[in-house]
Amino acid sequence: MNGGMDSTNKEQVWAQDDLLKLLDAMKVNLPEKDLAKYKTSEAHLDWEKVAFNAYSAEMCKQKWNEVSREIRKFRTLTELIFDAQDYIKNPYKGKKLKKHPDFPKKPLTPYFRFFMEKRAKYAKLHPEMSNLDLTKILSKKYKELPDRKKEKYVNDFLREKESFVLNMLKFKEEHPDLLESTGKKGSNVPEKPKTPQQLWYNHEKKAYLKTHSDATTKEIKDSLGKRWTQLSDKKRLKWISKSLEQHKQYEEKMREFIQQHPELNMTQEDIVKSTLTKAERQLKDKFDGRPDKPPSNGYSMFCAELMSSMKDVPSTERMVMCSQRWKQLKQCEKDSYQKRCEQKKKEYEVDMNRYLCSISEEEQQRILGEQKMVGFKKGTGGSSPAPKKSVSKAKNSSEKPKRPISAMFIFSEEKRPKLQQERPDLSDNELTRLLARMWNDLADKKKEKYKNLEAVLKAESEKRGKEEQSKLPDPPKTAQDIWQHSVIGDYLARFKNDRPKAQKAMEATWNTMEKKEKIVWIKKAAEDQKRYERELSEMRSPTAVVASGKKMKFDGEPKKPPSNGYQKFSQEMLSNGELNHLPMKERMAEIGGRWQRLVQKEKDRYKKIAEEKQKQYKVQLEQWLASLSPQERATYKEYNSLKRKNAGKAGAANAKKKATTKSSDLDEDEDDDDDDDDDDKESEEGSSSGEDSEEGDEDDDDDDDNDENDDEDEEDEEAEDKENKSESSSSASSSGDTSDSDSD
């Protein structure tokens, strides 16, 4: 037997001890009561849990298939006789224990005593009634009985119950072997913690049974269930605290248990995460001092305040009324709500930081990890990106490309900056309305330009959508798909490779399968769903963008100004076109020379301009960040922090190579600048041709101005990067010159 297996498995030689370990691991992972056919149990076995040491799940499964081919899979009559002998000796194992002749009979409840006594009488009186109708009548009759008459049945029940307890103790003494056989495998696993409602229910149930000893389980549940919903917050908090305490003890016991029983292959994921519902968690957090999250915008704040006075209005009509009243408000009133909302958000961040400092590290991690709190950073009120988004959002963002912006939107974005300068008194909403009117008044001929741009953007968006779709991770599989994949071989063998028949048979089997058999595959499907979400979020995270070296663009982000006087001077020299005839290497050298020849007064002037620009930039950046949503702000801040980290690493790595790579970098800069010069010429030609074709047209002149400004902005950004590369050499020479002038 072993020789046969060795010949078939030359790639991996298994020691005998390892083979025995494999069988032990399979044994441990079998269900508590393994009564299914061996093929069914084999198909349901989780090979990931069977895997050990250097042997993967696939290797373990393959080795078992090899071993199982060498052993018979039918039972002989001798084996059946052994089982029959065991059954005759112990016929009362497991669930059959209650059939044992010595097993004490459980006493009937007071209601069942009344029912058994009266049933025959009522059946004769109402022969046309079914058993169900008779039960309903007798149940009603029993409830209407006075306590005096009920007492007889209750006393009989209590007397027999005492006798039952004594007889049960006697049975345990006489048949200890039978009771031991009913003990569950893994019965020493710590008991799962109770929810607040379960703890309260168990407590109240005892008190309820004292006054209603004959009550059925359903009656108790109905009565107590209603009372739980009416319980005050203060009383609920008592049970919430008890449940949390119980959960804490359970977690400690489970961690100990997992360490003591490595053979069970249990992980931290097997520990119950929480015993509280979302509402209970919110109540506990509120009691601990967690601040309420403010409305996301002015309109939401207006609706929240208005709805508090509209409790009598049906919920379907409330939002309609809110919308109508909001439209009737003046713009200054709307702006007032928006300002109040922004103020509330700032207060919320301060309060939240204070709250986070007052709770344990564990609780801090939980709160910061919650989906609604994603983007909140302790200590700063800043943000960090969402580690995970909801499944629906992830699917929508990945499977549907973003809708391209409209022609009107392109027009608005183009005209907005100039309009903001001309009309600083207008709010954002008023500007948007004014731009919409301007668009409506625009001639069709002029609209054509923006419609063409929209068509180009739409085509690009569709192309990007297709490319993005091809890069998506494998979609998650359903529980049925995973199960079918694991048993397809057996079904194809049964139906002689007739796939349609095998498919139908598998579907029929799955539909008739019990839930407890499906649970393994449902868990695997849930894991696959998590894998899909994880890969999707990793693919879309800012980390990937930074790692790829691409610049991430944010709509409306203010342009970063020069950081010092030399950069401002360099930017000015590069943008005025005076040195465009020189290659980049010579151009930067000339700028460095001119900076050195500048008098200190001029240098100070440039330095002052740069500092002023930096101040303006900080104000604009704060205003822009305040206008972003929490998610957008989180993405922006993480992108910048990752960019700084990558830049730091790259700087450290490249410091040693600086001397060797400097010349090649300058050559690349020269090539880039030549390309920029060509682009500038093309844009100038385009703008001049536009002026020739439609002279006197103010709108087209504006368009040309904007195009030129855009080109200048792009050139400035590129220049800034180039300046940083040469700054070290220029600043060195500059400092030398400054020291000379000082000595003079």
TrEMBL record:
One family name in Pfam for this protein: HMG_box_5
DNA-binding region range list: 104-172, 190-258, 292-356, 401-469, 473-540, 559-625
Biased composition (Low complexity): 383-395, 727-738
Transmembrane segments: none
Any one cellular-component term (Gene Ontology): nucleus
Localization per record: Nucleus
Keywords: Activator, Coiled coil, DNA-binding, Nucleus, Repeat, Transcription, Transcription regulation
Primary location group: nucleus
Domain HMG box residue range list: 104-172, 190-258, 292-356, 401-469, 473-540, 559-625
Alphabetized GO MF terms: DNA binding
Keyword RNA-binding (UniProt): no
Region (Disordered): 375-404, 460-483, 533-568, 639-744
Stretches of the chain forming a coiled coil according to its record: 327-365
Residue ranges with Basic and acidic residues bias: 460-471
Start-end of Acidic residues biased regions: 666-721
Protein name (Swiss-Prot/TrEMBL): HMG box domain-containing protein
Source organism of the structure: Electrophorus electricus
